[in-house]
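Fold this complex.
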Amino acid sequence: MTAKLRAPGWYRAGLFTVLGIAFAYLLVGVVRSAMHFPNAWDDGDAVTIVSLIAAPLFFLVGIGCFDYWFYWVSGRPTRPEDHSSHGATSWKDYFRVNTDHKVIGIQYVCTSFFFLFVGGLLAMLMRAELAQPGMQFVNSQQFNGLFSVHAALLIFLFVIPVFAGLANFVIPLMIGAPDMAFPRLNALSFWMLPLAGLLMVGSFFAPGGSFATGWTAYAPLSTEAPIGQMFFTIAVQFAGASSIATALNFLVTIITMRAPGMSFFRMPLLVWANFSTSLLVVIATPFIAASQFFVLLDRALGFQFFDAFVGAGKDGSVLMYQHVFWFYSHPAVYIMMLPGFGIISEVLSVKARKPIFGYRMMAFSLIAIVVLGFTVWAHHMFVSGMQSWIRIPMMITTAIIAVPTGIKIFSWLATLWRGVLHLDTPMLFALGFLTTFTCGGISGVMLAMIPFDIHVSDTYFIVAHIHYVLFGGSLFTIFAGVYYWFPKMTGRMYDERLGKLHFWATFVFFNVTFAPMHVIGVQGMPRRVADYAQEFAGMNLAISIASFLLGLSMLVFLYNMVVSWRLGPRASANPWRALTLEWQVSSPPPIFNFDAVPTVVGGPYEYGIPGAVHGIFQSPAEAKPTPAGSVATSPTTE
Amino acid sequence: MKVRRHPIIQMVVIGAIASAIGIALALWINWFPADAAKQDHPIDTLYDVLMIVSIPIFVLVLTVVLYSVWAFRMRPGQELEDGPPIHGNTRLEVFWTAIPAILLVSLCSYAYAVLNDIETKHPDELVVKVQAVQFAWTFSYPQSGGRTVTSTQLYLPKDKPVRFDIQTKDVLHDFWVPAFRVKIDAVPGITTRLRATPTKLGTFPVVCAELCGLGHSVMRSTAHVLTPAAFDRWLADQQAPAQNAAGGGAARQLSQDQLIALGRDAFAGDGGCGACHTLADAGTTGTTGPDLDRALRGQSEDEIRTDIVDPNARIAPGYSANIMPPTFEQTLSRQQLDGLVAYLATVSK
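Structure:
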């Protein structure tokens, strides 16, 4: 038993979590006694807040995320690199600190999908309440908690990390690297994630209920909320730290570890997309961390950053919270979309059997979105009461960002033109994405127009728009990506018939659920309400029924994934006949990815050129190079 | 069949027909709530223009996707074939960068013109002070002589430009009259302003659009747009009872039954109690605050009065402080308050 408690793993993690809570109790008690506070040793609120920070950190130490670094820091002989924490031989290895990017990728994807299902269930509880006007199943606190936790989980614990997970698995393989640049940091990034998720879900058990101020946690509502709010505030710090560490890891990996011959303009567009996303994450995420630290300090220690009613001086500024928050949270929309653009480029090119149309413009438009993405945040604040002139430049930049996005959509359409379309599940999701995301993009341009936004701001029109972008956009690309790389990740094939059933059910019920929300929004139904006027009853009932069917369609996906992973037919190395490097190794790939270092000799999408290859595994002298874009043919030539 | 050999022409024809149907449908759907202010028309027209521009773009994407699926899908025997290696077309790429950019800048200019139009200042505006508190609205009308008329419902004269000066006593709220199309947040520490000119008689909902806590979904009121003469009469009526009370008060002494009836109306109606409290006798089913069918049992009139005017004095088990507005002594008339106390004391026996 002592040996188990000393070795990294779940036993030691459990012990350390208890130690973390004890540490928090002592720290709070000692400090409060030193300050001569009354009831120094029984302030549950303060102990809880410090525990929320300390317990996850102690858990990470216990499970073994820091072991190697501690050996090194304390001057003890570091263990020679024995790779004992690398690779997985049984399912148990997925529950340990593992440094293999392929294991971490699968850990990420499975964890995020777990939270997708939790968040989806919360959404269905909400729709059950909203099926009729009046209150039926939950009270106001529970309802506000449901939509707050739903959004927070699906943004911070699903869309952002699932893209990081897919990229974690695929990117080192795509650029011909044996692993990520910092494998131990990679493991630490992953393990912070389930902790953040558990804090958010755990807030339901907090006294006073879960956080209930929306995922936006606007001050001063959040700084006066019950203790559940702190679960969100602190969970965001862990999720954010995880994001930043992974993004740094991607940047260093992509810049320094590309295979010989892979210039930036020979990188697959998924690599470009994650490069751009990582830039956004590294620059923007500290801002949400700051906004939540302000809330933490306001609520826990009375800092009054956002208390506008302090004395006559009115020291606090409520609008500042919104500016800092959206300076992250608008780029976050692109953090949740750009990796999906990358996936769509991969899938469309391979499944249409054609080079991606306008490769360089596709790459440049990603960078344009990164730059413009930082100049539009206040379009979330057109009715916030901020200085009214700020609205005008923000309207223009918001509209202009549709130009690079439009370039991508039109280039994808041109990629389809005259191809040989393989209409299997990943391709169906990619095509579904093209239509639903265009719809979400158009409603986004409409929302940029200030006078219209003034009317529909904070209504169901916003709910419809964000779900067309994040569900019809991001989630469709995630499904496309999961089906596309499933053979590579698991070494088995998924069931194509179930995959198609999943697509059609999702596509139809997604539209039936979210399209009517545009209408009730314009008609005047505000969002984030548990009860609504009688005139919206019919539409809401229809939406609720469709949303339950949408939920059911997810079970088809779950069944397909679980059963195919265990019992599906073995997948060949390259079932899609793709050119990118990850398909040139076995499925699943060998433990260090490549037995021989690949040399990249051409573009990643040279379909239709006889004999074209992207990478070779012999010495470069033997290879015949075919540079990217060397064969240009006009699309109008018959 | 010449058309058959020109897929682009075929698609343009199909796309044009589909766009025309889509636009007709979008213009036919009655999207907006009642049209009750001068601000409505420019905003609704902007929306129509956005629809007319957007639908062809969406139809374009949809048509190309569907056409590609129909014309270029893999047929048996093509399993190992590839498409032609087309890498791009500079002219096409310049075209679909420039055209959307021009379109978007034009739309922005148009939206800017609409914005100036709906936010125009008028020299003779009626000023209404809007005070938001969790979870109620108070509207006050400054009168000559420093007096103020206060109401929990919004009364406005028709065809008179109104400026709302909006403040909050606690957290963020958002003042929105969907029928006027305009809204703005009530922000702690600052006064925000909003302009609208009502053009239609009737009653329209006032909604809080910014999440403000547990009672957010019941933070509603009603806007009454009256003829200017009726509005002036209403203002005069509001000032009258206060003078009566000051000058003796006995003039309008109500019987106990009248008081109870008044209290019942206030509870279910413009007093706003029923939005948060369940009370079988008044037929209300709110769940934000305690269920009064149970919580009131055995309470004296004095206790009930304190609970209404100073809700934080004692909190029902399971509920937290600062949920119920502490402002009812100001927002209810003295008779309404007496009526409510009498009514609640009667029904709880």
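Chain A touches chain B through 100 residues (CB under 8 Å).
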